[in-house]
Design a protein that fits this description.
heterodimer; A: mainly alpha; 4-stranded antiparallel sheet; elongated; B: mainly alpha; Methane Monooxygenase Hydroxylase, Chain G, domain 1; flat; Regulator of G protein signaling 9 binding protein (chain B); transmembrane (chain B)
Chain lengths: 467, 236
């Protein structure tokens, strides 16, 4: 293929893990004793060996991997979709059927790979070869691709034609059976890499993530490579690992706790605004609202972080702390957050105000921090930066979390809020569906504005209001 | 003429690259063997020699400043085709290295994939080397020693490509290919017809020719019968 695996000056590509697993499985199937049973395919005069039936593949998967037949069928169809086996009777539909339909294995050169992506030049050569063989009768989408490629890589079109002719002549030096097999293999490869319209592309991947840098295949690695490998393995041994049973348990409790609060899983009251065009749900759950909903107040009890993230929760917590005469903790915490996330230019002044208000001995709202943290913070204040108050902030946060927060949860104020909180009623379903409110769409952004900028802005705002 | 020479060498390189591509397709499959690896080695050596000579000739021609405009356009076209050919060759060589390392022949760590290709590829290699036929027997451990050499050669080809790009500057967007879309159909009718017959066995949709032949024979049979009847009526 014309594209090299390490684009010069770019990140090297890697083979995706699921493709590697499929390759390993296909190689296991090739074992002469333990592999899949093969038969011969008879076509008029030629006999081509190494054909497998769909039921053989499924049965081998069930036996070797000890899985159910449904799962084996799913795995087999994945193998077919990715082009590792291809059907012989209907070559265009890459699906596995668990009956007597014959399949054959794809040659390793044409295995689906993100390490060696299919190149435009090769596709052009393939289409030209097909054009020659079919005397110009290509399928519609292939004809479109052909025209596009002709425009796109016009400068190498001479090479495309020359290579296509030569490859066909080279193929003619083979036996007829081999020629057929190779043609089928190439067709399958291009069905997977350039799927016809309507067939999902199995190779779609998101933006490139550099998690796995594969090296070019080298028979003799350098000393540095091995040193790096040893260092990496040593670090990997020392890493703390959490058993997945513990992680999954935590995940289960989280999901169980949050289940009723999820608007998609548990339905949202009064009604889903996207369905009924009624935005009462958003109005009721706005950041600052007079009457918070019951679900929201319950969420404050899940964790301290939830309480602080919600503006209403924070306000009520502040009221509670004022009653308890420890409101300076929360004020200090908020000031530290402002320092962390605020502008760079305001840092010196902000640090000064924080010191004067909270940390100076005899300050108006002196916070209770332990002596070691206080020493460190006061030292750091000489060179103020964004994170200079981090230690102190963490100390105060843990203090509030361990001390004030449980008291808040048990307090009358919170219980009162919980009792008063509103559960919105579900809107009545309309009996006659065709009497629903007509939906008004906002003006199309593609149309030019009727008269100048202000009216365009006005009409956009009007449209938003209407919809 | 330098142009015809370059064109001929480029055609030879093109032929060798196509044959090499065809041989690399079967590595790792059921037709893989020490013989195949040796054929691959011979083919790529020939390809490299051709590449070096063609590259040298083209570089000399393109660095010659006193070249007429249409000559220069012609050479640039040849240059673009040549560098494309080299890219294909380099990629195929890298692929051959990866596949050869993944499917070693001397100890069956991985059994070869049963692809259904069982025949001999010596005729393809013979075509690549422009020889009449190729009969050879590779030693048992050929593929192991070959892989190290292949690795070196891949790097050499990469360096050669870089070198050439440095020496000659041909902007791709100014080159206009001679062949138009569908040019391959014009002069390849004889080749097309024979390979159509080969491919149509697996794809029953391509059934124009047999049905046309059937219609023709039926029509002629009916015509003959009508003529015979008419004659008998006349005789009566």
């Amino acid at each position: 293929m014309a594209a090299s695996p390490a684009p010069r000056g770019g990140r090297p590509r890697a083979q995706r893990p699921h493709l590697r697993k499929m390759e390993r499985m296909v190689v296991r199937m090739q074992d002469p004793d333990q592999g899949v049973r093969t038969r011969s395919q008879r076509l008029l005069i030629t006999v081509i060996p190494h054909a497998v039936t769909g039921s053989d593949v499924v049965e081998w998967l069930v036996r070797k991997l000890c899985i159910s037949e449904e799962e084996a069928l799913h795995l087999g169809s994945l193998l077919a979709q990715h082009g590792y086996i291809y059907p012989l009777r209907e070559p265009r539909s890459l699906a596995l059927r668990p009956d007597e339909t014959p399949y054959r294995f794809q040659t390793p050169y044409f295995w689906t790979s993100t390490l060696w992506p299919a190149a435009e030049l090769d596709y052009a050569i393939y289409l030209t070869k097909k054009n020659i063989q079919r005397q110009g009768a290509l399928v519609t989408h292939e004809k479109e691709h052909y025209d596009q490629l002709h425009k796109k890589i016009n400068h190498t079109w001479d090479l495309v034609v020359m290579q296509a002719r030569e490859q066909l002549r080279a193929a003619k030096q083979r036996r007829k059976g081999d020629r057929l097999v190779i043609a089928c293999q190439e067709q399958t490869y291009w069905l997977v890499n350039r799927p016809p319209p309507g067939v999902p592309n199995v190779l779609e991947q998101g933006p490139e993530r550099g998690s796995n840098n594969a090296n070019q295949v080298q028979m003799s690695q350098s000393l540095d490579f091995y040193k790096r490998e040893i260092e990496w393995s040593r670090k990997a041994l020392g890493r703390t690992r959490v058993k997945s049973s513990i992680c999954l348990e935590a995940f289960l409790t989280f999901s169980h706790q949050r289940g009723p609060h999820d608007p998609i899983l548990a339905g949202c009251l009064p009604s889903n605004p996207w369905v009924t065009d009624d935005d009462a749900y958003w109005a009721m759950n706005a950041p600052t609202v007079a009457m918070p909903t019951k679900l929201r107040v319950e969420r404050w009890g899940f964790s301290f972080r939830e309480l602080l993230d919600d503006p209403m929760g924070r306000a009520h917590f502040m009221d509670f702390l004022q009653k308890e005469f420890s409101a300076e903790n929360l004020s200090f915490w908020e000031a530290c957050e402002e320092l962390r996330f605020g502008g760079q230019a305001q840092i010196p002044t902000l640090v000064d105000t924080v010191y004067q208000q909270f940390l100076a001995p005899g300050a108006a709202h002196w916070v209770n921090i332990d002596s070691r943290t206080m020493e460190r913070t006061l030292e750091g204040l000489h060179q103020p930066h964004r994170y200079v108050l981090d230690d102190a902030q963490l100390h105060i946060y843990m203090l509030m979390k361990k001390d004030s927060y449980p008291r808040f949860m048990k307090s009358d104020m919170y219980q009162g809020l919980l009792a008063e909180a509103v559960i919105p009623l579900e809107t009545k379903r309309r009996v006659f569906p065709f009497m629903r409110k007509p939906r008004l769409s906002s003006p199309s952004p593609a149309l030019p504005p009727t008269s100048g900028e202000p009216s365009a802005a006005g009409s956009a705002a009007g449209g938003d209001e209407e919809s | 003429m330098a142009r015809e020479e370059c064109k001929a060498m480029l055609d030879a390189l093109n032929k060798t690259t196509a044959c090499y591509h065809h041989l690399v397709l079967t590595v790792g499959g059921s037709a893989d063997s020490q013989n195949l690896r040796e054929e691959l080695q011979k083919t790529r050596q020939k390809a490299r020699e051709l590449a070096v000579t063609t590259g040298a000739r083209l570089t000399v021609a393109l660095r010659n400043r006193g070249l007429a405009a249409e000559d220069r356009a012609e050479f640039e076209r040849l240059w673009v085709a040549f560098s494309g050919c080299l890219d294909i060759l380099e990629a195929d060589m890298q692929r051959a290295l990866a596949l050869g390392a993944a499917f070693p022949l001397h100890t069956p760590l991985r059994p070869l994939v049963r692809t259904g290709v069982t025949g001999d590829s010596s005729r393809v290699a013979a075509r690549a080397l422009s020889a009449r036929s190729l009969s050879h027997q590779a030693e048992r451990d050929f593929d192991v020693s070959d892989l190290k050499e292949l690795e070196r050669e891949v790097l050499q080809v990469g360096e050669m490509i870089n070198d050439m790009e440095m020496k000659v500057n041909v902007p791709r967007w100014t080159v206009q290919a001679q062949q138009t879309a569908g040019a391959e159909l014009l002069s390849s009718n004889s080749m097309g017809a024979s390979s159509v017959g080969a491919v149509s066995v697996e794809e029953p949709s391509r059934s124009c020719n047999p049905s046309k032949a059937l219609a023709a024979t039926l029509f002629s049979a009916v015509l003959l019968a009508a003529v015979a009847l008419a004659l008998s009526v006349v005789k009566l």
